Amino acid sequence: MTNANRPGGSVPLWAGLTFASFGAVMGLALSDAIDSTTAMILLIVPAALFFQTMRAANRAADNRGPCSAKGEAQQRYIKRVMVFSSAYLVAIALQVSLLSDSDPSMAARVALALLPAFAIIGVFWAIGRLIVEEQDEFLRMLIVRQALIATGFALAAATLWGFLESTGVVVHLDAYWWAVAWFFGQFVGAVANRISYGTWGAL
Amino acid sequence: MKNRLKVLRAERNWSQQQLADLLEVSRQSVNAIETGRYDPSLPLAFRIAEVFDLAIEEIFQREA
After folding, report:
1. CB–CB of A108/A55 below 8 Å?
2. Are B41 and A139 within 8 A, CB to CB?
3. Contact B26 A68 (CB under 8 A)
4. Which of A21, A42, A113, A131 has the fewest CB atoms within 10 Å, measured from its CB?
5. Domain containing residue B6
6. For A50-89, how does the pLDDT look when each residue is reduced to its tens digit (9 = 90+)?
7. What does the domain layout of chain A look like in residue ranges?
8. Measuring CA to CA, how many Å separate A8 from each of A26, A94, A146, B10, B34?
9. A68: chain B residues, CB-CB within 8 Å
10. Degrees (nearest 5) of the Cα angle A184, A136, B62?
C-alpha cells in the first residue's frame, strides 16, 4: 500500500509545477517581458510537466494491479505526440534563426509560419486518432469528455478575451494562443474526470 | 444502475486487474463500473455476463 501511494503522492507536485510554469510563461508573455516566440518555446516546459503529471497519475492508478501496461492506442498516441512536439521545436528553431538573420521572401515566411502550425495540428490529429483507436469504451469516454471540456474552456476564454480586447481593456493576443488555451483546458478536463470518475483519464 | 460486480468478483477471488484482463478493458473501467460511476454499454455488459456465466439482469439492476 505504501508503494501504491508513493507515485500517486507525486501527482499534486507535478500538477502544481505544471500550473506554476504555465502561469509564469503566460505572465512573462502578457507583461511583454519575453516575446511571443520565446513564450512559444518556453511552453514546452508546462507541456512536458503536464505529460509527467499524467504519467504519475496513471502510474498511481495502475499500481493496484499486477500488470497494467498502457494500451496500444495510448502508446501510439504518445509516440505521435513526441514526433509532433519534436517537429514543433525544430520548426520554431528554424523560424527564429531564419527570420532574425535575413528578410526572407513571402513564400519562405508562409512556410516558416505553417511549419509550427502543422506540428500543433498534428497533436490535434493524434488526439483524434486516439479517440478512434482506443478500444476501451470507458477510457474513450474520458478522452472525449476531456477534449470537450478543453474546447469549452478555450472557446470561453477566446470569447471573453475578444470582447475585452474590442473594448481596449486587454492587449491583443495572436490567435494561436487559443490552441494553447485548449491544451491548458485538457488539464482542466483531466481534473474534472478525476472528480467525476475517480481517474485522470488517458491523455 | 446498481450492479453486483464487486461481490461476484470477490466470490471468485479475482482482483480488479484479473477481471479487467478477462474483459479486455482497463482496470480503471472495472473500478468505475464497480463503484457505479460508469454504466457499461450493452456489448460490454454482455461480455461481463459471459465472464461470470450469468444473465445480465443477475448482475445489473435498475436503481429502486
Report:
1. no
2. no
3. yes
4. A113
5. 2-56
6. 777 777 766 765 554 444 456 889 889 988 998 998 888 8
7. 1-70
8. 28, 39, 20, 25, 21
9. 17, 20, 26-27
10. 105
Beta-bridged to residue B2, according to DSSP, are B61
Long-range contacts of A75-81 (CB under 8 A, 24+ apart): A76/A129, A76/A130, A76/A133, A77/A126, A77/A127, A77/A129, A77/A130, A77/A133, A77/A203, A80/A122, A80/A123, A80/A125, A80/A126, A80/A129, A81/A51, A81/A123, A81/A126
Cell of A89: 521545436
Compute how many other C-beta atoms are within 10 angstroms of the C-beta atom of residue B10: 10
On chain A, the residues whose CB falls within 8 A of the CB of B44 are 137
What predicted TM-score, i.e. pTM, was given to this entire model? Answer: 0.76
**Pairwise CA distance, residues B24 & A135, whole Å:** 9
**Closest CB from A65, A196, A198 relative to B17:** A65
A167-194 pLDDT tens trace: 999 999 999 999 999 999 999 999 999 9
- Residue A193: other Cβ atoms inside 10 A: 21
pLDDT confidence bin for A2, thresholds 50/70/90? very low
Q: H or E element: which one contains A12?
A: helix A2-30
Overall number of domains in chain B: 1
Interface of A with B (CB under 8 A): 61-62, 64-68, 71, 135-139, 141, 196-199
Give me the residue from B25, B32, B40 closest to A197, CB to CB: B32
CATH number for the domain spanning B14: value is 1.10.260.40
Of B20, B31, B41, the CB nearest to A137: B41
Regarding an ipTM greater than 0.85, the answer is yes
